[in-house]
Write a structure and sequence with these properties.
With 60 residues, the chain is mainly α. The chain contains 2 helices and no strands. Helix 1 (2-14) packs antiparallel against helix 2. It is elongated and about 50 Å long. The two termini are 36 Å apart.
Length: 60
């Protein structure tokens, strides 16, 4: 991920706070061990269903 690291360094020169925030998120994501089936956490109320209107009581 050298390219990503280089881009973070470029951002750091212009906006140190943004670079620190991005670095923290990068470390959190890169430290996760992914094996087997992976299911991302999500909130059903924010899941888009194209072509469907949202109605009370429907299940996603």
């Amino acid at each position: 991920m050298s390219k990503l690291t280089d881009l973070l360094r470029q951002v750091e020169r212009n906006d140190p706070q943004l670079a620190a925030d991005l670095e923290r998120e990068y470390k959190a994501l890169s430290s996760r061990r992914a094996f087997g089936l992976n299911f991302e956490r999500h909130y059903p109320e924010s899941t888009e269903i194209p072509g469907r209107t949202v109605r009370k009581g429907e299940k996603v």
